[in-house]
TrEMBL record:
The lineage of its organism: Eukaryota, Sar, Alveolata, Dinophyceae, Suessiales. This is Peptidase C1A papain C-terminal domain-containing protein. Keywords: Membrane, Transmembrane, Transmembrane helix, Zymogen. One of its GO terms (molecular function) is cysteine-type peptidase activity. The chain crosses the membrane at residues 43-61. GO terms for biological process: proteolysis. It holds the Pfam family Peptidase_C1. Residues 383-417 have a biased composition (Basic and acidic residues). Belongs to the peptidase C1 family. Residues 152-374 form the Peptidase C1A papain C-terminal domain. SMART domains: Pept_C1. Residues 427-451 have a biased composition (Acidic residues).
Amino acid sequence: MFGTKVAEVRRMAQTKDQKMAAAAEAASKRSKGKKPMKDLKKYAVIAVSALVMLGAIYLAATDNAGGKKKSRDTYRSRASAQVNDRYFVSDVTSYAAGNFTAAASPFFNGWSYADVSYGLDGVGIRAEGMIGFSGALQRCPDEGEGLEGGAVPPSYDLRVQKPGCEAGPVYDQGNCSSSYAIAAATALSSRFCFSDPEAYAETHLSPQQIVSCDKKSAGCNGGGIDAVWSYIERRGLFPESCVPFAGAKSAACKSDCNQEQKRKALDHCLMGGEKRIKREMYNRGPVVIPVLLKDDFLVYKSGVYTPTDNANQQYGANGEPLVTAVTIMGWGRSEGTPYWLVKNSWGTQWGEEGYARIAIGTGAVREESAIVGYAATPEALEEDARKKEAAEKRREELKKERAERDARIREREEARAAEAAAKASSSDDEDLDFEDDEEVDIDSEESGDDP
Ligand SMILES: *[C@@H]1O[C@H](CO)[C@@H](O)[C@H](O)[C@H]1NC(C)=O
Ligand SMILES: *[C@@H]1O[C@H](CO)[C@@H](O)[C@H](O)[C@H]1NC(C)=O
């Protein structure tokens, strides 16, 4: 029943409005270039539709006003309603039935759902072109399921397993839709530390640099959780201290720090599937993943989040479902429910000190859309150079093989031409048959050589 009444009223009002608007438009088309009488009709239609709209707004407004009875059924679907509405918060806790508890957090103080549509907008996967095509977002290489190195423990918490590798404190992004930058910088920092906890202890790279400098992202208006890695691969990131987080206060793209302090990513790819994500994280460190934003997640406080039955997905300005990018920091199981441990960027007073546990396989975490950004550590660079060298060598070999084969074919053709010329002087008929047979031979040999 939750929220359905107002949603229905709105839907009806909307369709009514749409019908009226369509009628008005049709009327205006009809009246084009015709008598003023038609214009009068047009204005009448517009006036009526405006009245209907005002009526709908009045109904929606009075529905919740007057303090007589604060209807619990209505607050969720209204853009002006507060995220931290205390009736809503207590309802979420009861609807969650022990899975998780809800609470107001300072991050959303004073935020309406309209603020959510604005302040968390614009984050998502922005593959330039289609997935898998060259130059676009690539799927991560398959490392083979079921191999011995593929086993992962039933629970994992990077904060415990690799202390100091969690890439600094939890951010408070404020009214700056920068989760795409924060999650990427966090994952990359953590991966450097993961690869060598001594050499890269407490690595903490700057998301503000992305917000301020990456022209292909939209700064505080969001960015691609995949595309942002292209910038990190090209330019590298300074430490947080060189370009401190400024969020919505905006900051110039500059730093006095030494370029050598930068850390780069080597490559990035798309990964799907619980097992593969766990293995990747276990072997190389955190990945970035989108979480669908439903209203009940905004007030998550503790426990294992599973979207409640009545949860409403939130949408951005262009009608796209809102997601926020988080960094997966581990996994586990609580009272039989498997979960992801994620680091969010809504301050330390949201969730479990800024972290959340989210049930696996409920659709809240988009497990088919993890982004892996490989850290350009010296070892990874060396390995990459080795692979590139091997690939180059293979290319050279193939080129040589092809040249040799072409030479063989040419030789044979020349020999055959010479033979044919010799036979032409004895018998013409015999010669033609012979040549046809040979042609077939050459074709099959060629295709056999070149799979
Ligand atoms: C966020 O910024 C926008 C644009 O300046 C503003 O309209 C909105 O009210 C702000 N939201 C909050 C919660 O401060
Ligand atoms: C509690 O979480 C479990 C596991 O995700 C889920 O199956 C169940 O439906 C949830 N209960 C409620 C009331 O949402």
